[in-house]
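Design request, tokens follow.
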């Protein structure tokens, strides 16, 4: 696992991610004493063996992550996606596309709606 703390490293990761068919994403955020949640961590996996932590507090420009989010060719896999997507859209100024929400998929498979990650 690598920790991404620069725009250059993020750009390299995004280029690698855009060469795959799917990536898994999760965010951690703080929502205390703010009107909007503040992005604290982005977890990005390209495979079981290729996982990365992106530190958005150390990176001034997250626009390259927005390129990945907006890439229609790459499936973005999230669990209970709406809040993560809203935070990522606010941080990257990009509308995410081609989203697969595992919580919704679980519902279609008749699993409980309260199924957690």
């Amino acid at each position: 696992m690598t920790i991404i703390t620069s725009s250059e490293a993020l750009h390299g990761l995004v280029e690698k991610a855009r060469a795959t068919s799917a990536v898994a994403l999760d965010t951690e955020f703080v929502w205390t004493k703010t009107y909007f949640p503040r992005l604290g961590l982005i977890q990005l996996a390209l495979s079981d063996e290729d996982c990365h932590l992106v530190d958005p507090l150390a990176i001034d420009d997250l626009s390259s992550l927005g390129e990945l989010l907006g890439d229609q060719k790459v499936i973005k896999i999230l669990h209970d996606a709406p809040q993560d997507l809203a935070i990522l859209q606010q941080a990257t100024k990009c509308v995410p596309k081609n989203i697969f929400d595992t919580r919704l998929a679980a519902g279609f498979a008749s699993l409980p709606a309260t199924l957690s990650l």
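Comment from the thread starter after seeing the answer: thanks! The longest helix spans residues 7-18.
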